[in-house]
Amino acid sequence: MSDVYVLGIDMIKFGRYPEKNVRQLGAEAAQLALADANLTIHDMEALYSGNLMQAGAMVGQGILQEIGQTGIAVTNSANACATGATAFREGWTAIKAGLYDLVLVVGSEQLGKMGLLGGGGSRKGIPKEGLLGSQTMPAVFAEAGQEHARKYGTTFEQFAKVSVKNHQHSVKNPKSMYQKETPLEMVMGAEMIAYPNTKLMCSVNVDGAAAAVLASEKKARELGMGRAVRVKASVLTSDPFTDRDLVMPDVNTCTRLAAKQAYETAGVGPEDIDLVELHDCFATAEILHYENLGLCGDGEAGKLIDEGVTWHGGQTPVNVSGGLLSKGHPLGATGVANIYEVSTHLRGEAGARQVENAKVGLTHVIGLGSACGIHILEKA
Amino acid sequence: MADDAAAKAPLPVVPYLKIPADGAPFLEARQCSGCGKIFLTERNTCAHCGESGLMQAKPLADTGSLYVYSIVHRSFPGVAVPYVSAIVDLDGGGTVKGNLINIDPDPEKIRMGMPVEVVYQIAPTKDADGNEYLTYYFQPAA
């Protein structure tokens, strides 16, 4: 089977674009990625579009209506916050299968200032929120973090440091929603949303889009490998049964399963990874994923953040883009945007935030419910 | 008169809360008799072992221990805050989520692993048809 390469990839600056619609945001990212690959929509043999909140709106076809209705196959994917990674993987799968040599992937989302997300559950009877606990995302991920605190004594301050780090990283990313440092006392003193997650420890609801052009090895060689990035592993898992998962979504087991598969497929280990973009939807979540991705042993994640290992300049920088906490989290775009970030470093084009000598990088997203997508990338 | 009394009987807030005609309310899950895994919702096939047709009623205990919690300070409009969202492992099996009451919403006061008990009360809200609901809460064990 052919290896798959990223030939072009880009994203729009994450932010709020009330004057635009989601297909325009997606179209903008698509054209940036096509230009990055020095190709046009007429070269694309299929489009894989990821969008969550307007999953029924045929967003992929809408994007083609903005940039060129060429009649190609369009697949619209929705997979909670793993939507973008899922669309990317659909494109990867098609090339792997030998169906196409060149495909376009677009992840897009328009969240605006949508407030708290979550709160599913039964609509029958009376509302359960605040009666049978909380289904809001900040509370669900607070509880996931508390499990780590219970097992290993992880502190509120250690969780808060994740947010300090990612906000500091974002200062050097012009495509981040925010570029502001948030010192520890500011993070810990911010409005408490769901203990231990304060407002600055919750990801930002924004509009955004990111896109990638994927190619088969044959096509990549023909067009030139100069700036190509090889997809060494593309893995998607769902959540295996665990005893508490009916009341407590388990983001750990599906991540561990995906990480194991990804490392095996890529033939690398966590020690070979030069940078990681992982799913910091809440500060508590990032701590869990240090261990889930094997960046440290179980129970060592608090130490990892304390010792600066995951800060820019540390041994394994995590979320140098600013992460979901500062760059923003446009659900369907997130999984493609983190591949953009890692690819940009592998290409040596990340400017002021460049991770020196980055050769191999990993991206990770979680869709609650649950899905985990992991990609391992290397400079071709 | 009998009809009036029936109309006023509270409804269970969730299907896994059972209200016997005579006797105390209790929580009841489903348990796979093949592998022993417990589910709060009705199902035919076990999500763990995959066997079908082996689900049996599993009454849950009214005592357990606090597994994890969050103190919720911001929720959806109209929901009173702060409150403690708690996940409790019940003695003898089964994990249930609910509000932990009769405790200060303060991380200094709440200890993961602390013994708790299930209590049953009429919920503060009624549905659009005016029906009352019986709900459950957790509180520190006496």
Topology:
The complex is a heterodimer of chains A (380) and B (142).
Chain A: E1 4-11, H1 22-36, E2 46-50, H2 59-67, E3 73-77, H3 83-96, E4 102-110, H4 137-152, H5 156-170, H6 184-189, E5 192-194, E6 197-198, E7 207-216, H7 217-223, E8 229-238, H8 251-266, E9 275-277, H9 283-292, H10 301-306, H11 323-326, H12 331-346, E10 360-367, E11 371-379
Parallel strand pairs in A: 2-3, 2-4, 9-10
Antiparallel strand pairs in A: 1-7, 1-8, 4-7, 5-6, 8-11, 10-11
Chain B: H1 2-8, E1 11-12, E2 17-18, E3 26-32, E4 38-39, E5 55-59, E6 63-72, E7 83-90, E8 95-100, E9 115-122, E10 133-140
Parallel strand pairs in B: 1-10
Antiparallel strand pairs in B: 2-3, 3-4, 3-5, 6-7, 6-9, 7-8, 9-10
Describe this structure in words.
The complex is a heterodimer of chains A (380) and B (142). Chain A has 380 residues and is an alpha/beta fold. Chain A has one domain: 3-Layer(aba) Sandwich (Peroxisomal Thiolase, Chain A, domain 1), CATH 3.40.47.10. Helices cover 35% and strands 19% of the residues of chain A. Chain A contains twelve helices and eleven strands. In chain A, the strands form two sheets. A nine-stranded mixed sheet of chain A has the order 3-2-4-7-1-8-11-10-9, with helices on both faces. A two-stranded antiparallel sheet of chain A has the order 5-6. In chain A, helix 3 (83-96) crosses helix 12 and helix 4 crosses helix 9. The radius of gyration of chain A is 19 Å and the shape is globular. The two termini of chain A are 17 Å apart. The relative contact order of chain A is 0.20. Chain B is mainly β. Chain B has one domain. Chain B starts with a helix and ends with a strand. Chains A and B meet through helix 4 and strand 5 of A and strand 4, strand 6, strand 7, strand 8 and strand 10 of B.
